[in-house]
Amino acid sequence: MLSTRDLVLCALFAALLGGLGMAPPIPLGFLPVPVTAQTLGVMLAGTILGAKRGGIAALLFVLLVAAGLPLLAGGRGGIGVLMGPTGGFVLSWPVAAFVTGWLAERFATNANPVRLFAVSVLGGILVVYAGGIPWLWLVAGLPIDKAVFGSLAFVPGDLIKAGVAAVAASGVRRAGILPIHA
Amino acid sequence: MLGLYLHRESVIHRLPAGAKLGGLLLVTVAVLALPSAWGALAAGLIGAAVLVAARLPAARVLAELRAPVVMLTLLFGFQALLAGGGWEETAIAVARFATLILLATLVTLTTRVMDMVDLFERLFGLLRPVGVNPAKMALMLALTIRFIPLLGEQVREVRMAQRARGVERNIAALFVPLLVKILTMADDLTAALEARGYDPAEPETKNST
């Protein structure tokens, strides 16, 4: 059962996803494309809150986007965006946060950034692509191999985000504020 | 809280959120089931009718559609070139999805965020048998809406502090203080909720949003 503190944490992380969408993209010194940090927030929700609370946080965010709040990067939102060709990449976030959290609860319970990175890649990148690419195929009829090829362009940026999520989660774990099994 | 909602006095705006969402679902299923051209035509006519009935400015609505249509056209055009398919087929396929996205956008533009959230809460009630507590979901949605501007402010604040220290390109230096701040805020907010008598064990605690 969710305690009062769990409810607050889920809402705060859902709001963090929204806050990250509002912030101007973060410039990365060596990449030409600025990084919008929302998927980073999904990884952090999983690694810091764990499977259940992380999944709920991302679900709250997706529901509010569907309700018509312009929370996605660039002020986009509404059911139209979720139904559009790239909607699967957003709809997969609750599952991605849950899987990241589930893996973190089992394989990355301390402040080891390498393990946190691996968990973020599996949950925060692989699951998101596993949701987004079939959606792209379903809605836009883009053949799977072409969709996979096109999505590869985003992998370097996503790997950097997973790295940042790992370093940040590791820093928070070292600060010892929130053990994963709270 | 500002949403994408665009207020007008119209029949469409007054329709309950559930009716609009249900209608969207039905039309979507129908369009996907019908042969391409007819489905697109039917959905397009419905979309145009709703657009007029809702008294929405067409320019604003079409602006919402530009990004997905450009992307769909690129994707389908790319395929037509590779597979040697006809341009008519591409146009029909783009039209089909563009009209569905148009209808979904119209639902969003004519429905208040709070009405949509209320609808979600009622739908969560259906999930009670599998252990979902609709009152808790409702409270979390309300809290999230309240926290979003707060968190946006926190993100900006921490970034400004890092810029002042000359470490704005170090992302770890952004996220660690941000997360620590969020986690300490959680303690204060939990205490504030409990001080106001919120008890999560009470099954029917329905906090007004």
Automatic annotation (TrEMBL), chain A:
<feature type="transmembrane region" description="Helical">
    <location>
        <begin position="79"/>
        <end position="104"/>
    </location>
</feature>
<feature type="transmembrane region" description="Helical">
    <location>
        <begin position="116"/>
        <end position="137"/>
    </location>
</feature>
<keyword id="KW-1003">Cell membrane</keyword>
<keyword id="KW-0813">Transport</keyword>
<keyword id="KW-0812">Transmembrane</keyword>
<dbReference type="GO" id="GO:0005886">
    <property type="term" value="C:plasma membrane"/>
</dbReference>
<feature type="transmembrane region" description="Helical">
    <location>
        <begin position="56"/>
        <end position="73"/>
    </location>
</feature>
<dbReference type="InterPro" id="IPR003784">
    <property type="entry name" value="BioY"/>
</dbReference>
<comment type="similarity">
    <text>Belongs to the BioY family.</text>
</comment>
<feature type="transmembrane region" description="Helical">
    <location>
        <begin position="31"/>
        <end position="49"/>
    </location>
</feature>
<keyword id="KW-0472">Membrane</keyword>
<protein>
    <recommendedName>
        <fullName>Biotin transporter</fullName>
    </recommendedName>
</protein>
<keyword id="KW-1133">Transmembrane helix</keyword>
<dbReference type="GO" id="GO:0015225">
    <property type="term" value="F:biotin transmembrane transporter activity"/>
</dbReference>
<dbReference type="Pfam" id="PF02632">
    <property type="entry name" value="BioY"/>
</dbReference>
Automatic annotation (TrEMBL), chain B:
<feature type="transmembrane region" description="Helical">
    <location>
        <begin position="134"/>
        <end position="152"/>
    </location>
</feature>
<dbReference type="InterPro" id="IPR003339">
    <property type="entry name" value="ABC/ECF_trnsptr_transmembrane"/>
</dbReference>
<keyword id="KW-1133">Transmembrane helix</keyword>
<keyword id="KW-0812">Transmembrane</keyword>
<feature type="transmembrane region" description="Helical">
    <location>
        <begin position="21"/>
        <end position="54"/>
    </location>
</feature>
<dbReference type="GO" id="GO:0005886">
    <property type="term" value="C:plasma membrane"/>
</dbReference>
<keyword id="KW-0472">Membrane</keyword>
<protein>
    <submittedName>
        <fullName>Energy-coupling factor transporter transmembrane protein EcfT</fullName>
    </submittedName>
</protein>
<feature type="transmembrane region" description="Helical">
    <location>
        <begin position="94"/>
        <end position="114"/>
    </location>
</feature>
<comment type="similarity">
    <text>Belongs to the CbiQ family.</text>
</comment>
<feature type="transmembrane region" description="Helical">
    <location>
        <begin position="66"/>
        <end position="87"/>
    </location>
</feature>
<dbReference type="Pfam" id="PF02361">
    <property type="entry name" value="CbiQ"/>
</dbReference>
